[in-house]
Write a structure and sequence with these properties.
The protein is an alpha+beta fold. It has a single domain, classed as Jelly Rolls (Sandwich). It is 36% helix and 21% strand. It has a 6-stranded antiparallel β-sheet with strand order 1-2-3-9-4-7, covered by helices on one side. A 3-stranded antiparallel β-sheet has the order 6-5-8, with no helix packed on it. Helix 1 packs across helix 3 and helix 2 packs across helix 3. Bound molecules: zinc ion.
Length: 225
């Protein structure tokens, strides 16, 4: 696996400082599990010590709680072993070209991925929401056929995309297994899956706060508030 697209310094710092919420942390930790180069950068930043960390804006209480939860899940997660996958893991292997899903993603999705319930988005695309306690961001797997555009695309907030299988192009840039893409509302993009096979990605996006408030407005008359 040759990884060409890495985490930004800013995101690694946020992760090291514990100010990333649970959903973002899943993607960052999963890339770190796949990427020795980013692990080295993380260690370098951690070694830089308290002076550096003190410059990071303090996380709010909810993020602290998410971080504690994340650490607890990481501690509980089974260790990844180099042994061949058991038959129950066949779907994992299929979905990642023989590689096992990286921790901590694997512990969120369970050891038996035969039970994964992909939901159709139409047009040969599927998604699988990953249950977290994170209310500020959502995590999901996307599975998209060759030559298809990545659906459910928002330009309204921050976005992290980690490729778990296959590859896609975003303009002139190609993202392959292990690559991570960071985008915000300033980035105009239209990812298209490459023609040589389907693509499975982990996608983290800001929660649709505007939509939620719209729903609240919609039901307000019925609730009498
Ligand atoms: Zn990296």
């Amino acid at each position: 696996m040759i990884i060409q697209h890495h985490l930004s310094d800013e995101t690694i710092l946020e992760y090291a400082g514990g100010s990333l919420s649970e959903a973002w942390s899943i993607a960052v930790a999963s890339h770190l599990a796949l990427c020795p180069a980013c692990r080295k950068r993380l260690r370098g930043m951690e070694d830089a010590g308290g002076a550096l960390m003190a410059t990071i804006e303090c996380a709010d209480t909810s993020s602290d709680q998410s971080w504690e939860e994340m650490k607890r899940r990481l501690a509980d997660a089974p260790r990844v072993t180099p042994e061949p996958a058991a038959s129950a893991d066949l779907e994992v292997d299929t979905a990642t070209d023989g590689a096992r899903l990286p921790e901590p993603l694997r512990s969120y999705l369970g050891g038996d991925l035969d039970g994964l319930k992909w939901k159709s988005l139409g047009g040969g695309a599927y998604h699988l929401p990953i249950p977290t306690e994170d209310r500020s961001a959502s995590a999901r797997l996307l599975r998209i056929g060759p030559g298809k555009a990545v659906p459910e695309h928002t330009h309204n907030g921050r976005e992290l995309t980690l490729v778990l299988k296959g590859s896609y192009h975003d303009g002139a840039r190609q993202y392959r297994t292990g690559d991570i893409s960071e985008a915000d509302e300033d980035v105009e993009h239209q990812p298209i899956v490459d023609m040589d096979g389907e693509c499975v990605c982990l996608a983290i996006t800001d929660a649709p706060l505007k939509f939620r408030s719209w729903v609240v407005r919609l039901v307000q008359p019925f609730l009498g508030i």
